[in-house]
Specification:
With 487 residues, this protein is of the alpha/beta class. It has a domain at 55-379 and 460-467: Metal-dependent hydrolases (TIM Barrel). It is built from 12 helices and 20 strands. The chain has helices spanning 77-86, 104-116, 134-146, 165-178, 189-201, 208-213, 216-233, 245-256, 268-271, 296-307, 351-360, 367-381, and strands at 6-9, 12-14, 19-21, 23-27, 30-35, 43-46, 51-54, 56-61, 89-97, 122-123, 126-128, 151-155, 181-185, 237-239, 261-265, 313-314, 399-409, 428-438, 441-445, 448-449. The strands form 3 sheets. Strands 8, 9, 10, 11, 12, 13, 14, 15 and 16 form a 9-stranded parallel sheet that branches. Strands 3-2-7-17-18-19-20 form a 7-stranded mixed sheet. The protein has a 4-stranded mixed sheet with strand order 5-4-1-6, with no helix packed on it. The longest helix is centred in the middle third of the chain and has 18 residues, at 216-233. Bound molecules: N-(aminocarbonyl)-beta-alanine and zinc ion (2 copies). The site of one zinc ion (ZN) has 4 residues, from loops.
């Protein structure tokens, strides 16, 4: 009789701080021992020469979600989580998105109904708050935070999602009182709307003008404003999908002041540029997202932001809309302009292989830094640590075994996303997650998917680490006056 269900032998185990040559023993879905010379388990994997990493956490992805334009993402909770798993991700945190007039509680129930019979890996939910009514702020949101929905995204743009500054302050105040984490999509709506109108009036309808309308200055202004509002309320804030140096400078400035401001970036800002939106016809729509990819100098700035830890999180912002589909990116047909194209690019499957290849294998970041950016920090920032995001005794046995010698040329048919294109077609990547384990179960083995629909479990989140109430009074801005009414 063996004590262990699974033993992984001979690999290099990577955490956010260390690389250790040791074996991993797993029982009942959890890691129970790290060391050497364990007896064989019921199953044993020889990982000699491979890297044993925590399964990735993709903390920004849109799955089975209707966009603000009324377009449904191509991936549901089955295809989206299968694709995630095949790319080395074992936990996702997609959004439960509220639209105006909707009860937040009802929205959450709807998303649970979509996920529970389909997800093959574990999942939590961020909320999207677009209608912060008195009932939402006073009752629904505090109750949902207590039930494990401890982070929410708000928008400064998109007609049907955007909040004004007053509303943002109200949401931030609830987050401060309850200990939640607020994520902001930071782009100045009026700048974008004004530029878009002028571009269209001048006959500039092609996808490349999306990049002109969504100016870096619009992102910079909204980033600075969101930081300022969070500073007033004294609450942590995470700026999502940062595209370049203008916004990076604002985040770095806030961090240098000691504010609890965090940053997230995504593959599209490292591997695409504005030139990818400038293709014949509307093909550039395949690389349209908001904020848009910018130029080479901004790509370099994003790499430096990762290296210097301005960014804590590297997520996909997977927002998959098919190209050649009457319900997809170009659903407006003959009336298509850059304003009618559904915003977003796919990336849930290639997020980790792209960063592993171009970040770790090209020497830009260390293996431990990769783990920090793709798993551990998200677990800490969103209240899943230490159950998720690390390889440690007691943690869930969510593991990706990486073979750095595996070279892969990206083609659409290799991928499991329910998409008709990938923006990364033709790239050759070094390193691949050949075995993926979720709660002790091998769910991907050398390209074979062995995960059953619905095996993924919902993860109620604890309060995020940076948002947990401090031991003493924190408000110090103005003689002890606390505008949030907390003391
Ligand atoms: O263009 C993007 N990023 N689409 C997804 C929605 C969002 O704002 O993250
Ligand atoms: Zn966004
Ligand atoms: Zn997004």
């Amino acid at each position: 009789m063996t004590d262990y269900d699974l033993v992984i032998r001979g690999g290099s185990v990577v955490s956010a701080t260390d690389v250790t040559e040791c074996d991993v023993a797993i029982k009942d879905g959890r890691i129970v021992a790290l060391g050497r010379d364990f007896a064989d388990g019921a199953d044993t994997i020889d990982a000699t020469g491979k890297w044993i990493l925590p399964g990735g956490i993709d903390s920004h992805c849109h799955i089975e979600q209707e966009s603000s334009m009324g377009v449904w993402t191509a991936d549901d909770f089955c295809s989206g989580t299968v694709a995630a798993a095949c790319g080395g991700t074992t936990t996702i945190i997609p959004f439960a998105a509220q639209y105006k007039g909707q009860s937040l509680r009802r929205v959450v129930q709807d998303y649970h109904a979509r996920a529970e019979a389909k997800a093959v890996i574990d999942y939590a939910f961020h909320l999207i708050i677009s209608d912060p009514t008195a009932a939402v702020l006073g009752q629904e949101l505090p109750a949902l935070i207590k039930d494990g929905y401890t982070s929410f995204k708000i928008y400064t743009t998109y007609e049907s999602l955007k909040l004004d500054d007053r509303q943002i302050l109200e949401v931030l105040a609830v987050a401060r009182r309850e200990g939640a984490m607020v994520m902001v999509h930071a782009e100045n709506h009026d700048i974008i709307a004004w530029l878009s109108e002028r571009l269209l009036a001048a006959g500039h309808a092609a996808p490349k003008y999306h990049g002109v309308a969504h100016a870096a200055v619009a992102e910079r202004e909204a980033t600075h404003r969101a930081i300022s509002l969070a500073e007033i309320v004294d609450v942590p804030l995470l700026i999502v999908h940062v595209s370049g140096h203008e916004a990076i400078e604002q985040i770095r400035w806030a961090q240098s002041k000691g504010l609890r401001v965090y940053g997230e970036t995504c593959p599209q800002y490292l591997f695409l540029t504005a030139a990818d939106m400038d293709q014949p016809g509307f093909a550039g729509a395949m690389c349209m997202c908001s904020p848009p990819p910018r130029d080479k100098a901004n790509q370099e700035a994003v790499w430096r932001g990762l290296q210097s830890r301005v960014f804590q999180v590297f997520s996909s912002d997977h927002a998959p809309y098919r190209y050649d589909d009457p319900e997809g990116k170009l659903r407006a047909g003959d009336r298509t302009t850059f304003k009618t194209v559904a915003n977003g690019v796919p990336g849930i499957e290639l997020r980790l292989p792209l960063l592993f290849s171009e970040g770790v294998m090209k020497g830009r970041i260390s293996m431990s830094h990769f783990v920090e950016l793709t798993a551990t920090n998200a677990a800490k920032l969103y209240g899943l640590y230490p159950r998720k995001g690390t390889i440690a005794v007691g943690a869930d046995a969510d593991i990706a075994i990486w073979d750095q010698s595996r070279e892969t040329t990206v083609t659409l048919d290799l991928l499991h996303e329910n998409m008709d294109y990938t923006p990364y077609e033709g790239m050759t990547l070094q390193g691949w997650p050949t075995t993926v384990i979720s709660r002790g179960e091998v769910i991907v083995d050398d390209g074979d998917v062995a995960a059953s629909r619905g095996r993924g479990q919902f993860l109620p989140c604890d309060l995020p680490e940076p948002a947990r109430p401090a031991a003493g009074p924190r408000w110090a801005a103005t003689d002890g006056f606390d505008p949030t009414g907390n003391r």
